[in-house]
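Sync notes, pocket subgroup
Present: LS, DG
LS reminded everyone that the earlier model was apo-only. Rerun requested with adenosine-5'-triphosphate included. Inputs:
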Amino acid sequence: MAENNALRVIARLRQIGPALVFGVSFLALWEAAVRGFDLKPYFLAAPSKIFEQFFKNYSRIWDASMVSGGNALVGLIVGTVFGVAMSFILSRYRFLGELITPLAIALNAIPIFVLVAVLNNMYSITSEIPRRVMVTLVVYFIVLVNVAKGLTQVRSTHVELMRSYAASEFVILRKVRVPNAVPYLFTALKVAAPASVITAFVSEYFGGLQNGLGSRITSNIANAKNAAAWAYVLGACLLGLAFYTVSIILESATRKGDTK
Amino acid sequence: MSALEVAGASKIFNQGTTKQVDALIDVNLTVNPGEFVSLIGPSGCGKSTLLRLIANLLEPTSGSVSVNNKTAAQARLDQDYGMAFQQAGLFDWRTVSKNIELPLELKGWDKAKREARAKEMLELVKLPEFADLYPWQLSGGMQQRIAIARALAAHPPLLLMDEPFGALDEMTREYMQGELLRICGETSTTVVFVTHSIPEAVYLSNRVVVMSPRPGRITEVIDVDLGSKRNEDTRAADGFFKSITAVREALRGTHADHAAANAIRGVEDR
Ligand SMILES: Nc1ncnc2c1ncn2[C@@H]1O[C@H](COP(=O)(O)OP(=O)(O)OP(=O)(O)O)[C@@H](O)[C@H]1O
Ligand SMILES: [Mg+2]
């Protein structure tokens, strides 16, 4: 038993080992470069300084993360709900799908978050709504395209089988299309979760409230506090990672049979 | 009263376009209740299409299909069909047992009854220990057996099977043939069975329907006289070989008519 566990730890280390070694050596090289070439803090801050700043400003970074993360989460949830709802409508009325899907794909390819500048004009300067709307939009299209695919691209044998059992369109939806679309939803969420953080974060560069990670980075850079700015960048990375991890955990929790 | 009556049925795909395919022309077929009829013919001759017409998954371009004196559409709504397709077509998100229960669910059976029948079917296809696994954890042949179990589960009055044993090894295949005959005999099920194997067609059937390709039509119907009780001795009986020869000759005829060398590939002498 103990031997078994030890083996499992070793296997796990083998898996993450290379990434760990790479990460640590990258940081070491960075630190060495800053010290060796005597790089000025306004040019490039040393990792040690960044970590120092990170722990010093921990509570402020946490608060800013909550603001950006909150916007991302609200947008993620609302966008997913609307995306799923719309994909049901599209799968029901195929001609709408043919109209909207190319548009959705095109919109996915361009950085639509610049729209936030326009949205900022529409709402008061103290409103979080423009950013949340932005995240919602980005998530909406990712979810829509994927889930609509999952609902429509079902195996023809499955549909024929259901029809031979006299199943109605609604029953086919419930027993074939929806289960078929579930993995597509989680694939979409794996993409949408980090994208929601990035969008929430980048949206802050276009004015509005100055309380999120993005605005903190700008203001710290403006005040020549480079290491502090990097500390907020680190916070943003961790936030994105957290969103991604949760989406992966959700996915593996709903996947069937794999762990048996 | 006939269990199945196909009268002057034709099916033309993409009619009037450059992609027009005359899949079936003027097909007439009457199947009596409890009868086992096999369809055999070169690849692409319209066997699957005929099965789909019977199942009301396709509408005939002309002609009609009736099942137990009802229209095919009504028979489908009455859930008179059990189908096994060329592909197993199991649902990856359902366990093996839940896959077999699907037609029973749609008939509104309660849970206990469904589970009991699924268990029974799993015993029958000799995979009882796989009930709680998912289809992708099974081999191709095992998946096909589950699909057969699913088709049989509700004891449908009309069973339509499209090369269901194609993916099975020879021993399992013979075993499944025996079981299929037993179940269909016990439940007086009418069967239309598509196969590429002449011995299989002969062993199972009361009649073997031989089809020709492009456009698909019925060229010959061969009565197989092996009695109603068939067992392993049947495979060594004189009548068995006689019927095999008859079917083979009928198939040769269709090939000679069309002189289509590539069509021969469709039929194996298994
Ligand atoms: N949905 C469809 N649209 C257009 N053509 C089709 C369609 N389904 C079948 N066909 C054509 O009809 C013909 C008969 O096809 P079918 O699948 O019935 O053949 P088959 O006898 O079952 O062949 P096989 O033994 O290879 O399974 C083929 O030429 C095929 O290309
Ligand atoms: Mg076929």
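DG: Residues B 13-14, 21, 23, 43-49, 266 surround adenosine-5'-triphosphate (ligand 1) (CB under 6 Å).
LS: DSSP finds ten helices and no strands in chain A.
Action: DG to write up.
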